[in-house]
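The aim of this short unit is practical: by the end, you should be able to scan a pair of folded records and say something sensible about each. We start with the first protein, listed as its amino acid sequence and then its structure tokens.
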Amino acid sequence: MLYGGCLCGAIRFEAGGTPFHRTFCHCETCRRSTGAPVVAWFSVPRAQFRFTQGIPGRFRSSAHGTRSFCPQCGSQLTFENDALPQEIDVTTCTLDDPAQLPPQDHTWTRSRLDWVHLADGLPEHDQARPGN
């Protein structure tokens, strides 16, 4: 089981199952929603994820997705894609131990900021990874 929560501690969650789609996302929406140049995410089966404390805010960030966040401190927590209702994406660095799930690739690199230089050797996908 993975455990995590927001910066202020008002929201807590747990995620089970085997994490997949461990990625660095470079899309503009992720950047703007977090204020960071890149965001690390992982996915788990939706049925294996639950909030255990607090009630997150929700924001429809695009025509196909909804993000959750802490209404007190603003930490972004999850992303749900309407086209993939069986999975939920979780911001890796909201885990109590984010070091246990290092990203395995980069997605949406066509949106990457020019001053972000990738030198980690991980696979790069111009958009979403194939099959996603």
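Turning to the second protein, read its sequence before its tokens, just as you did above.
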Amino acid sequence: MRSFAYFLSTVMLAFGLNACGGDSDSTEKPAPIPPVPEEPKEEEKPAAKTFVAGADISWVTEQEADGVKFYNAAGQERDCFALMKEIGMDAVRLRVWVDPQGYGYGPWSDKADVVKKAVRAKNAGLDVMIDFHYSDFFADPGRQETPKAWEGLSLDDLKQKVAEHTKDVLNALKAQGVTPKWIQVGNETRNGMMWPTGQLWTDSGDTPNGWSNYVALTNAGYEAVKTVFAEAIVIIHLNNAWQDADGWFKKYKELGGKMDMIGLSHYPQTEADKTWAQVNQLAISQIKSLANKYQVKVMVTEVGVKSADEAEAAKALQAFMDEAKNTEQCVGAFYWEPQVFGGWRPAYYIPLGWNAYDQGAFTADGKPAPCLEAFK
């Protein structure tokens, strides 16, 4: 009996051990560990819009030659390029004339002068826009004079001159380590350039072959830019940002005109029949419309307000800049010659009786005026 009882107790003990999981063959597998839930991803945000704050300070070397000095808000004398950087500018715009000295103006804004200024801009940490006028002097809606040395040439010869001049200036910049980010092919060319060959219309109507000639000339400039700086953004520039330009760009594109960006000038206090607020709103509307229709961004390559009424000028500029910065299609604005103050004018103007520029943005003591706060 003892042996049977012993046997029975042994069996019962083994059964009990098995029931409690003591046998490794029958051990219950641990429950799988639930995956750690992923932390919610931060909502992806679009990249911040980059808005270029710039200034055209092409007159600066001529001013310096006349003894003009520039100061920051604390009254400390500053190099003008360094001062632009100090007040929040990202870039400068520099115009190029073909032979201003032969025109009688002097050695300002020719190739050598532009290269010197561009190097100073680069050394100050500023990007550069180059503005080809394809003239010996100012080109604008009221004048687009063919350079004196190019007068009487055929269209093909003019195209060659445009290409040669463009490459010559850009190669000179490249040799000094300057890479312009933007390049204008023509300045305020609403009525073409290099008249009469590239003129679009006169009081009598459209100029025969004017549009096709103009497109051929601008394309010659565009292609010349790309041979030197393939990544540069080429701008076609018109005056009056507020004025409808849809029909203009429609015709330009239909004829094969090339561009990477639209440039517009905006002077909101110069329209006698409109308030600056109305001009601002019309300009913003045009910027959006043109950018959307022609699938390019828009740069306000010139903007200026009248310095006579400092408070009103500041309001007009601030209102426009606030709108422009919040407009996706607008990538920047350049104040035109903000560093003019104290009645300074080029020596060339004096015998002609021309007035000083009245939309500078420096105070009478050579400091940046409050309206430039709009660029920050």
